[in-house]
Amino acid sequence: GAVVSQHPSRVICKSGTSVKIECRSLDFQATTMFWYRQFPKKSLMLMATSNEGSKATYEQGVEKDKFLINHASLTLSTLTVTSAHPEDSSFYICSATLSGLRYGYTFGSGTRLTVV
Amino acid sequence: GQQLNQSPQSMFIQEGEDVSMNCTSSSIFNTWLWYKQDPGEGPVLLIALYKAGELTSNGRLTAQFGITRKDSFLNISASIPSDVGIYFCAGQLGNNNDMRFGAGTRLTVKP
User: Are A101 and A83 in contact (CB under 8 A)?
Assistant: First the structure.
């Protein structure tokens, strides 16, 4: 159980375009989802926390107008990178949890974004 | 926010050797977790620890939650080539709180 599906796994886009990444909890309802960013050979940096039906909470230094997060249902959260630039190229990973679930969080398989 | 210091940063070992890595924090956590990440994939949970002093095993992996709640270690015994990857510690305050990650330990196992 506790499977999180993230899509797409890889995306290449042109500068100035927007990219949407989806994170779905397949066999449980995720009350909270988290979005992380990971640079090569670096750790995971929390970008934002999203709770179903409410606005996401962004970490300091993360532009909320740049990284739009929507958590419209208990099984789906989306991250949209707007007006992407090459410096937005990175590995983005989501994780999800069910309230009260004890076993840490389940991660998606990540999305490799390359902005050219 | 809480800082997690994970060491060593990287390890190069021979197949069959034991491995030890640890994490320390300036703040206490209620849960410590250890994850493994393969290239191009999301982290996969290896062991979760919920009580200070708790020692938990998962096959060849053993992890402990420090008494002070500010540290944890992970041991891998008799390493094999498929142990290669990046190991992250993570601390969590509560069930719905976010996790904070260590910088990772990159493990290379030579056959």
Answer: no
**CB distance A101–B95 less than 8 Å?**
yes
Under 8 Å CB pairs connecting chains A and B tally to 59
pLDDT value at A99 more than 70: no
Q: Which residue of B has its CA nearest to A94?
A: B42
Q: How many C-beta atoms surround the C-beta of residue B80 within 10 A? A: 12
Question: What are the structure tokens assigned to A85, written together?
Answer: 């630039």
Token duo for residue B97: 């709180």
Query: In this predicted model, what pLDDT tens digit does every residue of A46-95 receive, in sequence order?
Result: 899 988 888 899 999 999 999 999 988 889 999 999 999 999 999 999 99
Q: What does the pLDDT look like over A32-51, one tens digit per residue?
A: 899 999 988 888 898 999 88
CA A81/CA A67 separation, integer angstroms: 5
B98, A34: Cβ pair inside 8 Å?
Answer: yes
Binary contact (B48, A102; C-beta < 8 A) = yes
Closest residue in B to A110 (Cα) is B42
